[in-house]
Design brief:
Number of strands: 8
């Protein structure tokens, strides 16, 4: 890795919803522009931007550091407010896997206003992770702010016990706040007392200094407030941006070793992702038969069931589709989908007739994955699967809400819970909605904002 004086290890993107304002492509480009060898992403409680950072940083020749600012509670299951921030960075693929587990558990087991984890979870999933003690909202800093040095020492000891002395750092920040300067001095003293090293971070929430006002407006959207209200929520300075190495060096002139450690951590962190690789489980065929041969048998039976007698046109179409499926390596995929739809239909669970491009597949019709005859409506198979464009088939399937969980559990039990995942859909504001929100925050009369919004084309 080339020499550079600083790497940002604490950064929030737009996936820190209505709080971070860094767009990931621009973030990676800015790191490259400043000749930083690496850049991190530590969104609040979420890894939603991890893959995008990995892609975009790679395009810029910058190492991606995958992290998360987790919310820590005493008991993740307790329905009570109260949590603190902790910065975690994945040192290895094992660490990345543990971050995924922590983030998932935060939402599935610890969600109460925020996706929270606790010490029990952290202790179970600490391998391959580097812990930074956190910002002003971290437990260590909160204790120091309240003058509770002994409590801060206990929190540090707990972090060291969980993550180990070589993977625990005391995090110092300077966004121009007097309290940060005082706490940094206390952390420096604790570093000497505990032997744990200091590391400097920027707590980045927006990309450039001039973005501070826009970020303030973003916070008003989150809080339902306006910029005109003198009491609106805002950050206390305009220094939470992606600072240059020279600016950071000036902020931490008294702690040069804390700057150098950002490079040390960046060197240690190395997560690799195999993107675009299809990893399908194998369908367990009867007597261990070849998956494609079994698919052919099911399709021929299904063709007879659907049409009664075959025709040259049907035979040719089925042969073409099966040839394409074999060449693209999707025999197991079709068997898996056939399997869980068959389970649903034989257990009284309602299944939709099929929609989208999958309705153009005769194979899907013969397997009763869909109930729309593609031959009757002259539907094209190539819109669904095209040998010239290798991508996963996309079969939209609708299950009755009363049996959907049974189908998910069936698939998870049969193929392994480590091979079944729920997916997330991100809802984003379209231009019209964004303009309306911005107008409200800026106290622009509704009639004016409405006129402007309606000038923007739909979508």
């Amino acid at each position: 890795m080339p020499e550079a004086p600083f790497v940002h290890l604490h950064v929030h993107s737009e996936y820190s919803i209505l709080d971070g304002a860094c767009r990931i492509p621009e973030l990676a480009a800015r790191a490259a522009e400043l000749e930083m060898p690496a850049v991190s992403l530590t969104d609040h409680g979420s890894l939603a931007g991890a893959v995008e950072l990995y892609r975009e940083a790679g395009k810029q020749g910058v190492k991606p550091i995958i992290g998360c600012e987790v919310y820590v509670a005493d008991d993740r299951r307790a329905q009570q407010k109260g949590y603190a921030h902790l910065t975690l960075l994945a040192e290895s693929n094992e660490g990345y896997a543990n971050l995924i587990k922590l983030a998932s558990a935060g939402y599935l087991e610890g969600y109460y206003y925020k996706p929270r984890v606790d010490w029990e979870l952290l202790d179970s999933h600490s391998q391959g992770l580097i812990a930074l003690s956190g910002c002003l909202s971290g437990r260590v800093c909160k204790a120091l702010e309240n003058g509770q040095t002994a409590e801060a020492e206990r929190e540090i000891a707990q972090l060291r016990d969980i993550f180990g002395p070589t993977s625990t750092y005391l995090e110092i920040q300077d966004a121009g706040l007097d309290i940060q300067k005082r706490i940094n001095a206390d952390l420096a003293s604790l570093s000497k007392a505990t032997g744990l090293p200091l590391v400097a971070t920027g707590d980045v929430h927006y990309l450039r200094h001039e973005d501070a006002r826009a970020h303030e407006a973003l916070l008003c959207i989150q809080s339902g407030d306006t910029l005109a209200n003198p009491e609106h929520w805002r950050f206390d300075t305009d220094q939470f941006y992606f600072k240059t190495p020279a600016e950071i060096a000036q902020d931490f002139a008294d702690y040069p070793e804390a700057l150098a450690r950002t490079l040390e951590i960046a060197e240690r962190c190395s997560v690799s992702m195999e993107l675009g690789v299809i990893r399908l489980p194998h369908y367990p065929t009867p007597d261990g038969r070849d998956a494609f041969d079994y698919l052919v048998e099911l399709c021929e039976k299904g063709l007879h069931k659907r049409y009664g007698t075959s025709t040259p046109e049907l035979e040719e179409r089925l042969k073409f589709e099966l040839k394409t499926i074999r060449e693209m390596g999707f025999a197991d995929y079709f068997l898996i989908v056939w399997d869980f739809i068959h389970f649903a239909k034989t257990h009284g669970i309602g299944v939709g007739p099929g929609r989208g491009s999958a309705a153009g597949s005769l194979v899907a019709f013969c397997l009763e994955i869909t109930d729309i005859d593609p031959m009757e409506y002259d539907l094209l198979f190539e819109r669904f699967l095209n040998p010239g464009r290798k991508s996963m088939p996309d079969i939209d399937i609708d299950f009755s809400v009363h049996g959907r969980d049974q189908v998910i559990n069936y698939v998870a039990e049969k193929y392994g819970r480590d091979r079944v995942a729920q997916i997330i859909t991100f809802g984003t504001m379209m231009a019209r909605a964004a303009v309306r929100d911005a107008g409200r925050v800026l106290d622009i009369p509704y009639g004016t904002v409405d006129k402007v919004a309606k000038l923007i084309p739909e979508g």
